[in-house]
Amino acid sequence: MTDRAGAARDERWMRLALGLAARGLGNTWPNPAVGCVLVRDGQLVGRGWTQVGGRPHAEAMALAQAGQAAKGATAYVTLEPCCHHGRTPPCADALIQAGISRCVVALEDPDPRVSGEGFTRLRDAGIMLDIGLLGDEAADLNAGFLLHRTQGRPLVSLKLAVSLDGRIATHNGDSKWITNPLSRQRAHLLRARHDAILVGSNTALLDDPELTCRLPGLPLRPAPRIVLDGRLRLSLTSKLVSTAQTQPTWLICREDADAARQQAFADCGVEVIGVAPDAGSGLPDIRLALEALAERGITRLLVEGGGQLAASLIRADLVDRLLFFRAPAVIGGDGLPAIAAFGIDTVAAAPRWRRMQADILADDLLETFARPL
Q1: In contact, 192 and 218? CB cutoff 8 Å
Q2: What angle is formed at CA 229 by the lines to CA 198 and CA 223, rounded to 5 degrees?
Q3: Of the listed 11, 59, 210, 291, which one is catalytic?
Q4: Is 117 noted as a catalytic residue in this protein?
Q5: Of 220, 246, 285, 369, which has the fewest Cβ atoms less than 10 A away?
Q6: Range 53-69 average pLDDT
């Protein structure tokens, strides 16, 4: 077999591992979504992906499926196998004990408890090691986990559903429905693939949303619904609060918000998170809010509005993915803009993203953008 054929074989198996890893998105936090494939004599003998809540790990699942067939196999893993003891033994040790002969890994784990140590253990055990195959794809898949570990905040995906002229509602606030049913189904899938969903207080007050994923069989793990509500204006009878006992619901407010009001929400089952206010706006500091979510394990955050929240995130350069649903309708200049003003004086100063993907959803268009490299 030529080297080229061997490289093609490795890429094939790693792409399978990445596909398996993607199944865990939105369900594994605070752990990364990892995929593992075990191949022996050209045959798949085991596969796995990180399960709901982060356990068991992908490698453990694949090894359990392979059994004795793991001896002499090649393991394809999307992220460096862990080497620290937690609720389960280290995956690097499990691979060694199973007797694999080679390990192909897409990406090093930046977690300081791992950070190359997993590779060292594999090498010391005499296992051949190849690192970096499809590393960019693996980094994109686990961008939330990487940001969580390196910057102490989650990946922020800003979802906007707009008319052709960038409006999210008419002048009197009517917004149902700008996009079509297919786009709305895709939006629910996005909820299932993120750890948590965030809206601003105006959106919560005007729309009284449920912020749940309403697709059959999803989600496997309910995503916390979060409202950025500096003065705790949300009604105690809102859908979010009234369902807080069964669906995780968090409110981010100013740390000096009324104590009795905070207690009233807590009595309803809502977790209240107080953060210091931003000196300029007086609203909860958005960076501190993201750090507070990261401390609670959130790695992938879907932001669904409104315009002031979107503007504050863009102004602070905190939007990592822009999910732009566009419907073939025109609302006009008196409609509500998707993004509030945030002080751009020149076109050259306007934030820009790179287009990753464009999907046609019947008459709607979904464009996915990422922050520039």
Answers
A1: yes
A2: 25
A3: 59
A4: no
A5: 246
A6: 95
Q: Where would I find the H helices in the chain?
A: 3-22, 58-66, 91-98, 117-124, 135-141, 143-151, 181-192, 201-207, 239-242, 259-267, 286-295, 307-315
Higher local confidence (pLDDT), 227 or 84: 227
User: 44 near 18, Cβ under 8 Å?
Assistant: no
Contact 317, 348 (CB under 8 A): no
pLDDT in tens, 90-100: 999 999 999 99
CA atoms within 13 A on the CB side of 197: 28
Query: Where are the alpha helices (H) located in 23-82, listed in sequence order?
Result: 58-66
Retrieve residue 36's tokens.
């593992």
Residue 373's Cβ-side half-sphere holds a number of Cα atoms within 13 Å equal to 5
Q: How confident is the model at residue 86 (pLDDT cuts 50, 70, 90)?
A: low
Please state whether beta strands 336-337 and 167-169 pair in parallel, antiparallel, or not at all (unpaired): antiparallel
